[in-house]
Amino acid sequence: RKEVEQDPGPFNVPEGATVAFNCTYSNSASQSFFWYRQDCRKEPKLLMSVYSSGNEDGRFTAQLNRASQYISLLIRDSKLSDSATYLCVVNPVYGDKIIFGKGTRLHILP
Amino acid sequence: DGGITQSPKYLFRKEGQNVTLSCEQNLNHDAMYWYRQDPGQGLRLIYYSQIVNDFQKGDIAEGYSVSREKKESFPLTVTSAQKNPTAFYLCASSDKNSPLHFGNGTRLTVT
Predict the structure, then answer these.
(1) Which positions in chain B touch A36 (Cβ < 8 Å)?
(2) Which residues contact A67 (CB under 8 A, 6 or more apart)?
(3) pLDDT tens figures, A2-52
């Protein structure tokens, strides 16, 4: 099993729809989890941290399932500006290297 | 404002020349990282440093070198031994269990 795995997409979704995607990780001792957004030819930017109890930020909801070792991102009422690549990031233990997924490409269609 | 600064944004070099990419942070973070990204690909870790005067190789360290003489600075040298140096280079920093903060990146083109 890869350390961090994401479906590369692309996911083509009409504007206003709800879209969700998952990221699986292999190290059960992983400490912290994040979703980043990367626009074309730009640096990744933090979208949200992922907490054990699940957390929400506006139209975005992140969840962690430790038993099945995955995190998820849900985007409601998608906007054209949500088009980007979404990167899953897992921090195993401080001092070890941070693991990036290869990203899921999302295209919101007008 | 606290942040992480990479310079220059675009860098052009001739094949066979070493080149050093700058990365400076004023976030007082202990850890710093260098990643490489090729078009349509994910981030790959080159080197990382958890503390001053110490650093570890990442997944693709061959042809690269780093130093960490100061907490706020983590320069990356792309040597002539790197076979395919043209890429987007990203520097990042973090603290324990905190998210990575990225610089704006340096786009290196070697011809």
Answers:
(1) 99-100
(2) none
(3) 789 999 999 999 999 999 999 999 988 888 899 999 999 899 999 999 988
